[in-house]
Design brief:
- By secondary structure, this protein is α/β, with parallel strands linked by helices.
- Strands 1, 4, 7, 8, 9, 10, 11, 12, 15 and 16 form a ten-stranded mixed beta sheet that branches.
- Strand 8 and strand 9 form a beta hairpin.
- It starts with a helix and ends with a helix.
- The protein folds into three domains: 3-86, no CATH class; 102-158 and 178-318 and 358-403 and 697-717, Glycogen Phosphorylase B (Rossmann fold); 411-688, Glycogen Phosphorylase B (Rossmann fold, 3-Layer(aba) Sandwich), CATH 3.40.50.2000.
- The chain contains 31 helices and 22 strands.
């Protein structure tokens, strides 16, 4: 029994077990029991059951003992949880019974699971978190590896001048739903990785994500030197040297961590290039068994999956030969190999031979390589055709599995109730069934409209409450309060733009013609407002300047409070925005958007997209489910492309979007708008769900790599 359980009354002690498994975060039964536990504390802790259980007033516990509604909810949640965990008739068990007993290892530098587990910065991590949750729901035997960041990603604070400040807070591990991992013999699990001349020890933590276990490496251990204890302090912090050390730990240490806790996976999946050194460690294992380097590399390739996420060259990690020699020399010396042997694994033909390219390493040693949308597949083939000079672009063996979102995580409770009423009670389990979503036409427009309006009011209350708290605690002056959204109102057409602030995402594109934008926003009969949110990397000065520019617009008197910037964008804020705005805006410079998933979450909740034809929207847009900025007839330079796209954005708003929103029937309902919202749901929910995505990974990438020949090699390592 853990210490938290001991503080609870005997009849409620299983609440600790429930709080320590993130299943509750996407389960209606789980959320219901904790929201009833103490509604005010639930809100004040930002929906964090562990903190709630630690801070609950004993008098409240006494009241709950007499609360039959709570007791029924508690019993229902525990029954649902135990049935879920014990089930064997899940999708994987029925579709792939011959693969029972196998394991898929999934490595990622970040995982976005819940605000209470701050192990993510943005889209890559959110996608990885959704991957784990859906694997759990489908029963796919997945185990994951990442880092336990002791300071996580930064908390964003916008000062009075509109400049982003990065604040790093220490993570309270005792308040997180994590436990120290143990070996099969019951001992605390630890591993060591040689980093240059140093031997670094990693503590291993375990996070339970439904049926899936996520193991986290943590160098904050007394055995380590001070500089090594900080290696896992921050996500994407530090210089190239720190990044290389982190990636050696993630890849090499991750393999060793899985071995230590008793896993010997049959398939290995590297999510982006950061964990690619896992391939080096696995080659080393086989070379130590007596295999030649080429034979070991070929064997590793047979059961490796690699997903690339960025068409932006700067997004691919590259390390100098000097750094590689300093930190990796032990590897080739230990195996009796040469530096040339090592460098050849990550050598990119178009870069200096003295550079080591992590994505090239992963591509060379993977049987299945994929981008994250159909468009990204084509872009990636062009980027990496140089690795297959004898092939045409169309023959490059890079595929695509378009990203999807974990529907139970991102659906608004109110939309869930609507779908349960008009689709099926079990619609969540069938969310990838396109036939099911044809029934969305049967949802009365007045009920859909009222639900959408309610979600907008709910979002605005949340934004205003954050601004009020900033005023009360003295962290915001009056202008900051207004710029943060205090002047937003619930009847205007509301656009949302929230993402990482890199320059190619063109956050300020709509401000290209300020006079024209003002006419759109300030029309007294058809007003429009825009909510911005998102972070720039602390070292990305151009990204910080974009936020600064937007904040000046949010502060401007002549824009009448129609622009707002909501600071410290995270999963909690994201849910309010993707569920509450009327239109989701996205205008990256094509073809630099690999996929994007925020727009998929919005569409699921009946929020149409307004986007350029890039990433997932290029395959998702059908003419009836939102709006697309048309592509020019021929490629344009950046300045002309920006002018083309901004002109089309203004025209779409003026001629189509704003009129459609404000065109009401005699009943006051915008029936044309509701039709677009329904089409957004019908086309977005099933195809761009993580359920479809995981089934596709299973059928195309995982299952084909499970043959007996591969299994036998892994079993020798057990």
């Amino acid at each position: 029994m853990d210490n938290l359980s001991r503080t609870l009354p005997a009849e409620f002690r299983n609440l600790s077990e429930l709080a320590r498994n993130l299943w509750w975060s996407w389960s209606p039964e789980g959320r219901s029991v904790f929201s009833h536990f103490d509604p005010t504390l639930w809100r004040l802790t930002h929906h964090d059951p562990m903190r709630q259980l630690q801070e609950i007033d004993p008098s409240r516990l006494e009241m709950l003992r007499q609360d039959m509604v709570f007791i029924r909810k508690y019993q229902a949640a525990m029954n649902a949880f135990h049935e879920y965990m014990a089930a064997s008739d899940h999708w994987f068990g029925t579709q792939y019974p011959h693969l029972n007993g196998g394991t898929i290892a999934y490595f990622s530098a970040e995982f976005g699971l819940h605000r209470s587990v701050p192990l993510y910065s943005g889209g890559l991590g959110i996608l990885a978190g959704d991957h784990l949750k859906e694997a759990s729901d489908l029963g796919i035997p997945l185990v994951a590896v990442g880092f336990m960041y002791n300071q996580a990603y930064f908390r964003q604070v916008i000062d009075a001048e509109g400049w982003q400040e990065a604040v790093y807070d220490s993570v309270d591990q005792m308040a997180m739903p994590i436990d120290l991992a143990r070996t099969p013999a019951g001992e605390l699990a630890k591993i060591q990785v040689r980093i240059g001349r140093r031997l670094v020890t990693c503590i291993i933590w375990q996070v339970r994500v439904g049926r899936v276990s996520l193991y986290l490496l943590d160098t904050n251990s007394p055995e380590n030197a001070p500089e090594d204890r900080h290696l896992t302090a921050r996500l994407y912090g530090g210089d190239h040297q720190t990044r290389l050390c982190q990636e050696l730990l993630l890849g090499i240490g991750g393999v060793r961590a899985l071995r230590a806790v008793g896993y010997h996976p049959h398939v290995w999946h590297a999510n982006e290039g950061h964990p690619a050194f896992l391939l080096v460690e696995r080659i080393g294992e086989l070379v130590k068994q007596g295999m030649a380097l080429d034979e070991a590399a070929n064997q590793v390739r047979l059961n490796t999956v690699f997903t690339t996420h960025t068409p932006v060259p700067a997004g691919h990690d590259v390390f100098s030969a000097d750094l590689i020699r300093e930190y990796c020399q032990w590897w080739w010396e230990d195996l009796g190999l040469t530096q040339e042997d090592f460098m050849a694994l990550g050598r990119h033909p178009e870069l200096s031979p003295n550079q080591f390219h992590m994505t090239t390493l992963a591509i060379r040693l993977a049987a299945f390589v994929n981008g994250v949308s159909r468009e990204h597949e084509h872009v990636s083939r062009k980027m990496f055709q140089v690795l297959w000079p004898e092939r045409s672009v169309n023959q490059v063996p890079i595929h695509s599995v378009t990203n999807g979102v974990h529907v139970p995580t991102w659906i608004a409770k109110e939309m869930d109730m609507l779908f349960r009423k008009y689709l099926e009670l079990d619609w969540r389990e069938r969310c990838d069934d396109q036939e099911l979503w044809k029934r969305i036409e049967g949802v009365p427009d007045e009920e859909l409209w009222e639900t959408r309006q309610f979600l907008k009011r709910k979002m605005l209350i949340f934004i205003r409450q954050r601004a009020r708290i900033g005023w009360m605690d003295g962290t915001m002056d009056p202008i900051q309060v207004l710029a943060s959204g205090a002047l937003l109102e619930p009847y205007s057409l509301t656009l949302g733009f929230a993402r990482r602030y890199a320059t190619y995402k063109r956050a300020t594109l709509l401000f290209s013609d300020l006079d024209r934008l003002k006419k759109i926003l300030l029309n007294p009969w058809r007003p429009v407002q825009i909510i911005f949110a998102g972070k720039a990397h602390p070292a990305d000065q151009p990204g910080r300047e974009l936020i600064h520019q937007l904040y000046q617009f949010a502060k401007a008197h002549d824009l009448g409070g129609h622009i707002a910037f909501v600071e410290d964008y995270d999963m909690h804020v994201a849910k309010f925005l993707v569920q509450g705005v009327d239109v989701w805006l996205n205008n990256p410079r094509p073809p630099l958007e690999a996929s994007g998933t925020s727009g998929q979450k919005a569409a699921l909740n009946g929020v149409p997209n307004l986007s350029v034809l890039d990433g997932w929207w290029k395959e998702g847009y059908d003419g009836s489910n939102g709006w697309a900025v048309p592509l020019p007839d021929e490629p344009l330079d950046e300045g002309k492309q920006d002018a083309w796209d901004s002109e089309n954005l203004y025209t779409l708003l003026e001629k189509e979007i704003v009129p459609l929103y404000y065109e009401r029937g005699i009943d006051g309902i915008p029936h044309g708008w509701c039709a677009t919202a329904k089409n957004a749901i019908r086309t977005g929910a099933p195809i761009f769900s993580a359920r479809r995505m995981l089934k596709e990974y299973m059928g195309r990438a995982y299952a084909p790599l499970f043959p007996d020949a591969v299994s036998s090699v892994e079993e020798k390592l057990a």
